[in-house]
Amino acid sequence: MESDFLEACANMAQNLQPFYPLVRVTSVLAGFALMGLALAGLKRAGDEHRAALPQLAVFLVGALLASLTSVVDALTLSVFAQSAPTDMSSVSVGSLGGLEPMIRLAVTIVMLVGAYQVVKGLVLLKEAALGARTFWPATTHILGGVLCLNIRTFMLALGSTVGGTLESSVRALLGS
């Protein structure tokens, strides 16, 4: 029974991995769509003699979405001083016998949620550019998503900061 559950966890982690590139591709397509809409809005703003700043901000957010991988890598380098993971197949966890598939599944789910949250934060940033009061929620989603995408590094840093048994437990779980 327990081995069936662990096998199901391992299979689920393997089946969730294709969603990570899907989030990136969707982000690129949404970015190009936003840039196109912003350019059309810039033309309308010029014809109607309105301010172009909101449309320029939407164009910038579209460019950030279109280059999501570079944006996430730059944010990760800023926070953790190392490159962001490019996919979830490189997720490595410790060898805790039967717990390894469950830990790998949890890390995979957290990374997938992190990629989604960065995209959601950028979309909220676009809404903030158009006048909505979503700047701080957008910032929170982006930073939280970066932490989720780098959950392994974040947990190792947290464990080494606290020290003692927590550090050794985190290192045992994450295989470092």
Key terms:
0% strand, elongated, mainly alpha, 176 residues
What is the residue-mean pLDDT, rounded to a whole number?
A: 82
Q: What is the number of beta strands?
A: 0
The amount of helix comes to: over 70%
Strand fraction equals: under 5%
Helix/strand/pairing class, anyone? mainly alpha
Shape: elongated
Annotation field: number of helices? 8
Radius of gyration: 20 Å
Order of helices and strands: HHHHHHHH
Main sheet overview: none
Q: How many domains in all?
A: 1
Which spans have pLDDT < 50 for at least 5 consecutive residues? none
Distance between the termini: 30 Å
Fold and architecture overview:
- The protein is mostly helical and 176 residues long.
- The chain is built from eight helices and no strands.
- Helix 2 (19-47) runs parallel beside helix 5 (100-129).
- The longest helix has 30 residues, at 100-129.
- It is elongated, with a radius of gyration of 20 Å.
- The two termini are 30 Å apart.
- The model has no long low-confidence stretch (mean pLDDT 82).
Give me a quick take on this structure:
79% of the residues lie in helices and 0% in strands.
SSE topology:
Blueprint: H1 2-16, H2 19-47, H3 53-66, H4 68-80, H5 100-129, H6 135-149, H7 151-162, H8 164-174
Helix pairs in contact: 1-5, 2-3, 2-5, 3-5, 5-6, 7-8
